[in-house]
């Protein structure tokens, strides 16, 4: 290359840098933290019953041969209200949903279920986030599909939107087979 | 802000009086704070439950507390993302501090506790990234750049001679 052409190199590098920065800035960054537990055995945990008349959720219950969707939620979580009708829809389609209520209280949970519907087969209580951390989850709502052998097969971060039901159902079918 | 700006206000007549009014600055700062907190509110919705026992309580053993604190400054808050769990008031950061303190109290080493969290959230959760398949560029890039620079400098020196 001639000396003249070499002189263009800094300019080209600069243009490349600006292009890369513009590309990264234009795409909204994904700040969600994915769990490393997907594909592995569900952690050992025991979430005591949130409501005395209903069962809680524990690791041993997840290995009974039937898949389930473990849903982390809370009465103080606004997106969980938006997700509630979708969970009811999934329940109608045959998905067994077990809830883990994060930092919550029985009275608030009863009120939440009365207002937003109750898709849960069981509700465990996670008062200080121990179960949440055990699953590698970092917020509410979050859902994990656990297969009949107790292996976590899928993680959904954030509320399940109506248009994501098909994706979740496909993962559910995979976990059943 | 405060004393310093009042003392200099007499000497710089060129600036408008409002510039040196601490009250105006405080009002502006408060307005900015109000704007940012209003923005971040939906993301940091929190419960009305009391924090985890060891979220704000130190361990009785000061040596263990020092170990836990050192580790907490190196662990990233998962829901605030720019802060360590030591610096964050988010509930999840409190839960993670409880986890760190109770595990250290139970006799685990800081490295074991860190490994437990990395096992769940990836090396992203630690501010002390280990050298592995995902981070080798981070570790090797400075060395490569330094070597490249050294080569360039050496060639320059040879040409001069």
From TrEMBL, chain A:
Coiled-coil zones: none
Gene3D superfamilies for the chain: Glutaredoxin
Q: Fetch the SUPFAM superfamilies from UniProt.
A: Thioredoxin-like
**Which Pfam family, giving just one, matches this sequence?**
Redoxin
Q: Where does the record place the Thioredoxin domain? A: 36-174
Which cellular compartments is it found in? Cell envelope
What UniProt keywords are attached to this protein's entry? Cytochrome c-type biogenesis, Disulfide bond, Redox-active center
Q: Which CDD domains match?
A: TlpA_like_DsbE
Keyword Disulfide bond annotated: yes
Q: Cross-referenced InterPro entries, in alphabetical order?
A: Periplasmic_diS_OxRdtase_DsbE, Redoxin, Thioredoxin-like_sf, Thioredoxin_domain, Thioredoxin_ResA/DsbE_sf
For this protein, the record's PROSITE patterns field holds:
THIOREDOXIN_2
Provide the primary localization: other
Similarity-based family: Belongs to the thioredoxin family. DsbE subfamily.
Record's protein name: DsbE family thiol:disulfide interchange protein
Q: Which organism is it from?
A: Sphingomonas humi
């Amino acid at each position: 290359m001639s000396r003249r052409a070499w002189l263009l190199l800094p300019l080209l590098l600069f243009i490349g840098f600006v292009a890369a920065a513009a590309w990264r800035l234009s795409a909204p960054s994904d700040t969600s933290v994915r769990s490393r537990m997907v594909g592995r055995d569900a952690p050992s945990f025991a979430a005591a019953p949130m409501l005395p008349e209903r069962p809680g959720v524990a690791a041993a219950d997840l290995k009974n041969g039937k898949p389930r969707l473990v849903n982390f939620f809370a009465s103080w979580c606004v997106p969980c209200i938006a997700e509630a009708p979708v969970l009811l829809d999934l329940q109608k389609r045959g998905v067994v949903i077990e809830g883990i209520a994060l930092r919550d209280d029985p009275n608030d949970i009863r009120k939440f279920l009365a207002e937003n519907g109750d898709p849960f087969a069981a509700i465990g209580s996670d008062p200080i986030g121990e179960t949440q951390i055990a699953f590698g989850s970092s917020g509410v709502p979050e859902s994990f599909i656990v297969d009949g052998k107790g292996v976590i097969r899928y993680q959904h971060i954030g509320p399940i939107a109506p248009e994501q039901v098909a994706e979740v159902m496909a993962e559910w079918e995979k976990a059943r087979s | 802000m405060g004393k310093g700006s009042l003392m200099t206000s007499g000497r710089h007549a060129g600036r408008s009086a409002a510039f040196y009014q601490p009250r105006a600055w405080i009002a502006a700062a408060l307005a900015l704070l109000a704007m940012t907190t209003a923005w971040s509110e939906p993301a940091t919705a929190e419960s009305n439950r009391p924090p985890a026992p060891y979220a704000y309580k130190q361990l009785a053993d000061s040596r263990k507390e020092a170990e836990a604190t050192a580790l907490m400054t190196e662990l990233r808050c998962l829901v605030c993302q720019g802060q360590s769990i030591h610096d964050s008031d988010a509930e999840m950061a409190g839960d993670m501090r409880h986890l760190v303190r109770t595990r250290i109290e139970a006799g685990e080493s800081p490295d074991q506790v860190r490994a437990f969290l990395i096992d769940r959230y990836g090396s992203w959760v630690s501010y002390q990234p280990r050298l592995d398949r995902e981070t080798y560029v981070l570790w090797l890039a400075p060395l490569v750049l330094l070597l490249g620079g050294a080569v360039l400098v050496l060639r320059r020196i040879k040409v001069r001679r």
